[in-house]
Model the fold of this input.
Amino acid sequence: MIDINLKLTKKQRVLNALAGEDVDKPPVSNPTNVATVELMDYVDAPFPDACRNPELNAKLALTGHTELGFDSIAPYFSIIQESSALGCEMQWEQKDNWPTVRMGNPIWKSISDIKIPSGFLEHQDNVAITRSINILKEEVKGEVAILGKTMGPWTLAYHVFGVEPFLLLSIDDPEETKKILRKLKEITILFGQAQIDSGADVLVIPDHATGDLVSGKYYDDFLLEIHQELVEDLKVPLILHICGRTVDRMPSIAKTGMAAFHFDSKNLPSEAMEAVGEGIRLVGNINNPETLYSKTPEDVRQEVYRALDSGVQLIAPECAIPLKTKIENLLAIPDAVNQWVSNKFQS
Amino acid sequence: MNIRPIEVIEKYGRCIELISMDPFFNEITIGLFFKEPNITVFSYSKLDGVSGRLNQIRDRIVDVSGALPNEANPHQATFKCGMEGGCCSAPLRFALKEAVTKDRELDLSQGIICKDLRSNMMIKVNYEENSNGKIYTVSGDDNAEKPIIRYRAITNGLIKYGGFERIDNFSFRLSCNERNDKIVNLLLPLARNISATEESLASEDAAGQMTTQSLGFSAN
Amino acid sequence: MIKHEGLKEEFNYVTKPDEQEHIEGLFASGDMLMQKIAYNLITGQNDQVGILVKKALDEDYAANIVLDDGLIAGMAIVGVKFRDNIIFVPEVLISARAMKAGMEHIEPILSASGIEPVGTVIMGTVKGDLHDIGKNLCIMMLRGGGFSVHDLGVDTKPDDFIDAVMEHGAAIVGMSALLTTTMPNMGTTIEAFEDAGMREEVKIMVGGAPVTQEFADEMGADAYGANAIDCVQKAKDFSTTKNGT
Done:
C-alpha cells in the first residue's frame, strides 16, 4: 500500500516493498544492473575493468543512486563473476559489451568434477563484488539499498557444464541433475553469504531456466524446491530473476517464499500479477531493447505507468540495461514514478 | 568537466546518438545532443585533450553535414533553419558516426554522385529551385536493367534517413526547404541499400544488449 | 498407415492438415518395425533405436528404407512438436541422439553400397559467434535427412568454410548466427567465396534467430532456413538442382 505521508529512506522503501509493507511511493530499483558507457566515462570506470576492480566497480555502481536517482545500487553488473572464479574460460570483451563464459569449452563433465576451488572467495572476480559492497556500504551509510547477486545453480550449470550437455543430462538422469543442482547450490550460498557479510541488504538470484530452452514443468521438477531452500539458507530478502516468457512458471515461483520476482517485458504486468497472486512481489518490467534503448522518455513513462497501474510493487528495467542506453531515459523512470504518485494521490 | 548527467540534459537537451568507443581518442564515449537551435558534441570523459577532440568532431560534423559552427562554442553547431521543431536532426546519427569513426574527405567536386550497389549505374542527385522549392532529384546514367526502380528506391532511402519531404517518386526537399548538398551527399551511400543499412544499424544497436540469445541461453 | 499405438499418440500432436498428410505418407508402408523405430526415436530411446535398426538391417530391410521410414519419419514428428512448443530443447536433443544411434548402423552400409548421401553440407556458426544449439539441431536433422555433414563448430572464419568445401567436395554451405552483431559475417563469408572464385560452386544457406529472408537476400545467400526443418528442406531443394549433387 502507498502512504504518501511516510518518510522513508531509499533503503527502507526497497525493503518495505519487498516485504509487502507500506511505502511512500513504489521504489525504483534494478536487480540486474545499472551501467552505461556514458556513466563509465563519468566516473572513469569502463568495462571490463569495472567488473574486475572493486574500487572502479563501486564508483560505477554508485551512479545509480547519485546520478539516476534509483533507490538501490547493484555492483554485480553481469552474470559471470563466480564462474570466472570457478575457472571457466572467459571472454572479457571491451567497454561496450558484456563479458561472457565460453560455454563451448566447459570446465566440468560430471558431478564428481564439482569442486569449489580453494581461495574461491578471494579470487579477483569475487573480491571485485564483495569488496565493492564494503566500499558502497561505507559510502551510502544505510541510505540506499545494496543489492548483491549470486547465480542460481541452473545458470551455474550452464556455465560449468555447457548448455547442451547439461540439458541432455537433465532428461537422461533427472536425479543426477538434481544432485548436481544441490551441489552447485553450495556455490550460490557461499558467494551470496559473502555478499551479505560484506553488507548486501538484498540478494538477486538469476537462474536462467527460461522458456527459450525448457518447459515450465522443468522449473517445478528441478528448481522450485531448491529456491525454497535458498530462502532458508540466505537470510536477506531474495529477488529471483528469470528472463523471457515465464508466465507459465510464475505460479510456482510465487511459492518459493522469495521476496520478489524480477520479470521480463515478454510478460504483461497484468498477467504477471494475476499469475503470482499474493505469493510474491513483482519487480519490472520496462522493455530494454526498444523502450529504454530506442524510444523516448515519454515512452518510458507510459511503461512505468502501465506497470504501476497493474500493481507492480517495484519498478525496474526488465533486465541488465543495454550499455548504450541514454541517461535521459533512465532518469525518466524515477520521474515517472513520482508523477504517477502525484497524479494518483495528490491531485 | 564535472557537469552531472542531469545538468548535461538540462543544458544540451536530448541525446540523439552515442558512439560508445571513439577509435581515435582513448575509446571515450561521444554523445551528440540536441536542444534547439544547437547540436552539441559532448563526452563525460575527463581525460586531457577531450575538449580538443570534441572540437575536432564538431568540425567534422560541419564538414560532412553542412551544419554551421557556433563560433561561441567549439563543440556546438546548428543549421541554417535553426533546427526548429527538430528540423535537420534526423540524419545526425549518421553525421556523428562519420565524424567520429571515419577519417576521410567527403568529396563534392563532382556533385552528389555515388556508384549504385545493385547495378553498374552511377547515381546522381541534382539540385534545382522551382515552384516546389529547393528540390533534389535522383537520377543516374540508366546503366541498369530497371533504372527507374533503383531511382525510386534510393529516393525512398534518402527520405527515410534524412527526414526529408517527398515531392514525387524521385524528388524531395529538406523540411526547412534549404539547400544542403553535404547532408544529401552523406546519406546517398546509405540510401542505396536500405536493408543493408537497417541491418547495420540493428547490428550496432544490438551490441551491449543482454538477452537470452546473447547469453547463449537460447536455441535460436 | 500408423498402427503402433504409441506412434498414434505422438501423431496426434501433428495438427496441420498438410503436415498430417505428409507425415502419414512417411508411414504409408504400415511396417510395424519401422514404426517402432520412429516411436523410440521420438521418445529418445537411443539404445532401443540402435537395437531396432540393427534388427531391421539383419532382417534385410534396405538401409535407405530404414532411414526414411524409421528415422526420418520419426524426426518429422519431433520437428513439429518442437516448433509448436510441445517439447523443448532437452527432448529434441535426446531424439537427435537416438537418430545418431540409428545412423551409426546405416551410414556404413550406405557408404559401402555406393549409395551416395543426398549431399554434403558444411555447417558452422560464423566468426565471432559462440552459439551453437540451433546449428547443432540443424546438423542432426540434416544427417537424418541423408546428408553428410561436416561441422566446423563456432567462430568459423570464412577461409575455414572455403577450405572445408574444397576438402570435402561439398556443394552446400550452411551458416548460423545467433547475434545481430555477427550476422554481417555471413556477408563477409559469401564475399570470400566470391573472391576465391568459388561462389558458383556452392549453394549457401543462412539461419539463426536474428536472420531474416530479407537479410539473407541482402547478403547474397541462396536460401534462408527459418528453423531446423526448413534447413533440411532447403538443402534438399538444392540437391535436386544441378549444383546440389
Observations:
- The mean pLDDT of chain A is 96.
- The CA atoms of residues 218 and 253 of chain A lie 12 Å apart.
